[in-house]
Amino acid sequence: MDSSVYLSASIRAQLEAQRGAGDDVIDFTIGNPDFPPPPEIVDHLARSIADPGNHRYAAHESAGERDYREAVAGMYRRRFDVTLDATRNTLALLGCKESAHYLCMALVEPGDVVMICEPAYTTYRGNAALFGAEIHAIQCRPEHGYLPDWSEVPASVLRRTKILFLNYPNNPTGAVMPLDAFEKAVALAHEYGFVICNDSAYAELYYDAPPPSVLSVPGALEVAVEVGSLSKSFNLCGWRLGYMVGHPGVVERVLRLKQFTDAGPFPALQQAGAAALRLSDTFHRDLRARYRVRRDRVVDGLRACGYDVFPPPAGMFVWARTPDAERSDEHVARLLREHRIACNPGGVYGLSGTSFVRFALSVNEALIEEAMYRLGKSF
Ligand SMILES: *Cc1c(COP(=O)(O)O)cnc(C)c1O
């Protein structure tokens, strides 16, 4: 589809080849949490699976069970002080990754503009391209805290925009968008008539103040949706359980498309997922503390080796400029060959990432120590 996909694939192939040859490669490439989910939620799923009523089509099919959607709305009330109507403003998703696909299908005609704030998760670009959109990438720079500078976007582009994809807290940078920046985006969406989708997959993994929701902005429900999931918040990536919340018209249009493709998540998963969304914050506090240890170790270790590191205020990645601004694909290939350390080349996430690399924090502390030791020896 685009060269970044092939680039990742070639690095993965090199990694597999080295592992096959007996190399002990330490893999920082994939954001796939290795921490366990809450044990009581796994128990809840076991009980839900044993319920014979749970093996038929879900009562509300694609939309999601009422109780799951109430739990999503309840979480928004507690966490963000945002009031949502479970029926009009919420929708179950099979993980939030699918949202970009349905949003583009629902809202984009060939030639319409889709705006993406880069560096960005590759799903937005892939789906926008799939539906014939003209992609306008806003390059977000470290000196602006990786936030978009709207003055760089011509009014002619804003006028043709159908969707603005935001992802805060951000993968790969960990940047958080403060409420006043969300306010600016919402004002532009009102002025130019486009829809905002903020991907809040990392909303619970933060190290400073809790990141806000775009829906906290007054009037946001008329122009914005937010998507999230249990994948990173509860270490449940494999469950494929997420949600879309916000603008009732957009939620309705996505639901209409989903009715042709799925019948909603497995009811037992929705019941255990609702219980997870109602858990106390203790689980997240512990999870953040564990990620913080890893984050600090990787940030310090990379800095000691000459990387210019943006200390992430949120998320599960460390984004770093390579020493001497070496090109990211060459740097990554060299780290793998010489140090048996795998990380992602920043160019995968957009043009502005070509001298950056991304380290995922889904590697245990002992392996992080070993990786930083290997790196440190070479400097
Ligand atoms: C991991 C990740 C997701 C998670 O997607 P799910 O489909 O919910 O598992 C979504 N967005 C971003 C930016 C991610 O990094």
From TrEMBL:
Its EC number is 2.6.1.-. CDD domains: AAT_like (cd00609). It comes from Burkholderia theae. InterPro entries: Aminotransferase_I/II_large, LL-DAP_aminotransferase, NHTrfase_class1_PyrdxlP-BS, PyrdxlP-dep_Trfase, PyrdxlP-dep_Trfase_major, PyrdxlP-dep_Trfase_small. Transmembrane segments: none annotated. It comes from the Bacteria. Keywords: Aminotransferase, Transferase. GO terms for molecular function: transaminase activity. The keyword Cell membrane does not apply. Its cofactor is pyridoxal 5'-phosphate. PANTHER family: AMINO ACID AMINOTRANSFERASE, L-GLUTAMINE--4-(METHYLSULFANYL)-2-OXOBUTANOATE AMINOTRANSFERASE. This is Aminotransferase. It is an enzyme of class 2 (transferase). Residues 24-374 form the Aminotransferase class I/classII large domain.
